Amino acid sequence: MGGVEMERRNESGAGGASWSVHEPVLALEVVRFLGADRPSELEGWIVDGTLGAGGHSRALLAALPRVQLLGLDQDPEILAHARESLAPFGRRVQVRRARFSQLGSALEAVGARRVVGILLDIGASSLQLDSAKRGFSFFADGPLDMRMDPERERTAADIVNGWDESDLADLFFYEGGETRSRKIARAIVESRRRAPFQRTLALADVIEHAVGGSGKTHPATRVFQALRRAVNEEGDELLAGLAAAQEWLVDAGRLAVISFHSGEDAEVKRFFAQGSSEGQWETLTRKPVTASREELLRNRRSRSALLRVGARTRRAQSVRGGGA
Ligand SMILES: C[S@@+](CC[C@H](N)C(=O)[O-])C[C@H]1O[C@@H](n2cnc3c(N)ncnc32)[C@H](O)[C@@H]1O
């Protein structure tokens, strides 16, 4: 992400540092779809509901000279980065701290009316994942936190130390796709009887002991993903974000959603399919768009990215009037 940022990233966790360029995933495709095939004429507001390092926003602003952009992120630390990176675009950009489920009130606050495009690039930013103190990483030790919005009450430690064994197992299975969820939940409950979990590496170690660590990915990957999704209520946010997009987009306005999780992608697919059958959406991507060979070679994170795009086909009853 953040096309110009290069950041040292230790992916092995064992001293084998590697350099990786963070760039927005599927950026060309996002610009093409949200540009609505007429980039120089498109006018109105685009909402980037998941601003992150601002890579997609920069690409959209550069390619679509007449649009204004409202960028949202729930994480104040991330917003500081994004503000800086979007500063060259001056008054074409408004940046606000908000969840994308609150897209409507954010649009009202900046007086935006004609919304021609919305992007949701779901999940965590590598700026968050790579920062040990945020507690997302099983490679670098940090507090077991995982809140993108620091004002949320519940942390990952609250879940790991407080939920029943069967609820933990269900969470790991349904939200992380972890097939060894019962074994891991049992090991966690046994370990927390001795001392509650407070740090990420302690949790990662218990998981590794429970299921071994021979695969390509770290054995804690799916459990950490499930915890992150629960802490940040990502499933509910996605549903609310899709509903808000349906309410706010103008006729022929486009919604692009990038997900990294098969359950999320299925939710987006279902939303567009139902919307199409009700005459609310035209689905522009029959199958999810995935990264090109070139992008896969350049950007590891693009491996699991799935993009779906729909066009609004009927003006919603409550759409807020005309001009930009
Ligand atoms: C995958 S990153 C986005 C990267 C971005 N597209 C870029 O080009 O750098 C996701 C970002 O969305 C934010 N986020 C996740 N869920 C959110 C939500 N419900 N509302 C607002 N921001 C959210 C995260 O804090 C994170 O910064």
What does this structure look like?
- With 324 residues, this protein is α/β, with parallel strands linked by helices.
- The chain folds into two domains: 201 residues, Rossmann fold (3-Layer(aba) Sandwich); 79 residues, Putative methyltransferase TM0872, insert domain (DNA polymerase, domain 1, Orthogonal Bundle), CATH 1.10.150.170.
- 41% of the residues lie in helices and 16% in strands.
- It is built from 13 helices and nine strands.
- The chain has a seven-stranded mixed β-sheet with strand order 5-4-3-6-7-9-8, with helices on both faces. The chain has a two-stranded antiparallel ribbon with strand order 1-2.
- β1 and β2 form a beta hairpin.
- α1 packs across α2, α7 crosses α8 and α11 runs parallel beside α12.
- The N terminus is likely disordered.
- S-adenosylmethionine binds next to α2 and β4.
- The site of S-adenosylmethionine has 23 residues, from α2 and β4.
Distance between the termini: 29 Å
Order of helices and strands: EEHEHEHEHEHHHHHHHEHEHE
CATH architecture verdict of the largest domain: 3-Layer(aba) Sandwich
CATH topology of the largest domain: Rossmann fold
> Got a strand count?
9
The side-by-side strand order for the widest beta sheet comes to: 5-4-3-6-7-9-8
How many structural domains in the coordinates? 2
| Unique bound compounds | S-adenosylmethionine
How much strand content do the residues show? 15-25%
Question: If you compute it from the alpha carbons, what radius of gyration comes out, rounded to the nearest whole angstrom?
Answer: 20 Å
Could you say which structural class the secondary elements and strand pairing correspond to? Answer: alpha/beta
> What is the CATH class of the largest domain?
Alpha Beta
- Major sheet details: 7 strands, mixed
Helix content: 40-55%
Could you name the CATH homologous superfamily of the largest domain? Vaccinia Virus protein VP39
Mean pLDDT: 89
Shape: globular
The DSSP helix count reads: 13
Low-confidence stretches: 1-21, 315-319
